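This protein record is not my work; I was only asked to verify it. The record follows directly below this note.
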Amino acid sequence: MVTLFSTHCSSSSGAVASNSSIGFYNYHNNLAISSRKFGSQKISLQINQTSICNAVRMQDGAVAAPLSKIENETPLKKLKDGILSVTPPKEQKDTFDFDNNKDKSTVSITVVGASGDLAKKKIFPALFALYYEGCLPEHFTIFGYARSKMTDAELRNMVSKTLTCRIDKRENCGEKMEQFLERCFYHSGQYNSQENFAELDKKLKEHEAGRFSNRLFYLSIPPNIFINAVRCASLSASSAYGWTRVIVEKPFGRDSETSAALTGALKQYLKEDQIFRIDHYLGKELVENLSVLRFSNLIFEPLWSRQYIRNVQFIFSEDFGTEGRGGYFDHYGIIRDIMQNHLLQILALFAMETPVSLDAEDIRNEKVKVLRSMRPLQLDDVVVGQYKSYTKGGATYPGYTDDKTVPKDSLTPTFAAAALFIDNARWDGVPFLMKAGKALHTRSAEIRVQFRHVPGNLYNKNFGSDLDQATNELVIRVQPDEAIYLKINNKVPGLGIRLDASNLNLLYSARYSKEIPDAYERLLLDAIEGERRLFIRSDELDAAWSLFTPVLKELEQKKIVPENYPYGSRGPIGAHYLAARYKVRWGDLA
């Protein structure tokens, strides 16, 4: 039997071993153990004849628990003594109990691109929140790495301006911040310099102080320098004995070809289980609650199919434009930026079959099955738009091409709507509609499940000819004001028979007093603990790009002109015609 160990949110938690562990740990002075940097399978050991080595480097990188003499011992006695059998590599789980060796282990977190907006606004605040909640290991160090010249004190000053304490836990806030900042350090260097990363490695070792070291690198940098940073980190700054993991931010390429090239380049220096492709929407509370809502409530699972569901809508809208940052966006557009990753990942979680377990691979296997069952997106099922300037109340809002960082003749869509289909027994014929846009009338992200009409409804005459008014609808509002509500038909109190559409509403802020953690907090903690279910596997990425790449190429090759829509409006009229073609009305416009 293999024991899986994970950390908990307490200040005494130790670091965690996982099947991405690298190298060996020398538990006894009389053992000379050599190891290679990660990515290598060749190993060498020197042990004396009277001892059995206490750590075994598995083919997939896992570290097995210490072994002792096993002659003439029964399986039960072995289990009682804490001896773990070694399983084949594919089945190997985290086995080394760091809780008993917490004084010997540490986690070093390096934020590569520490001077950027993402690091300042999201990553460092998330790490502080984890520290504030007692979720980080007892021994940890945080390093910022970037090209900017900066001292440790200057980094701490920069980071301190973005830190906040929990609304429901303000005690000792200042003291906690000081303690956290004392563990933050900075090293300036180039992203393509092995020498600079070797200097970082030297500093990391000084702070690790001889403890069993695990290292996490967060690549908060543009994708064109991912490979250089990974190469230098792997060759010059990986952990010699513990695990080394790398978090990679989207975009993961622009199409199937560039994505495959990026994955192939990363795998020259990393194994798949060391790569954590982050999509922060998967860390949002309501997205993670999807499987709980469906699989732990009997009333929903029997309804989750084509028999009862008429259509499903995934809606994302922002009430602001590119605001002077159109250079990056113009290279990718709304389909690559939002639909191919955020919305498609949520769709896969929504539509997947019941996984064998909550294990990461079981969940990701089911998501891949959904993606592989989907039809490639056709141009006829896509509407693209681009916002234009609009004046309202004396204020003028600039159009997309008015942004100085955007070419005047840009055809990059800032809005897109699409109809997708899953060709399997559960979802055959059900339209899955996506809509995403910038500079719209509101900021929101939600999932809308519209159920079929009640056959032979006795109260149809009360709704007139518009039966959509009588349709039950389940709404999962991801942001803002997280909520789950179910639209039902109800009798209005009184002597007559008058029906009303009412909501059974679970508003999170009213039901739960605890502040909802930021998505980056959950995902960073999962990466530290080696939990991969909310991260994207390479075959998931391949399947996702295969759906969107053909239509993206067609849009660009045919130079399809996006339909204009005013800044602050509900989007182009073409989106309504697309929905109407499948006898659907967008739920957010009702």
Observations:
- Confidence is low (pLDDT under 50) at residues 1-8, 11-102.
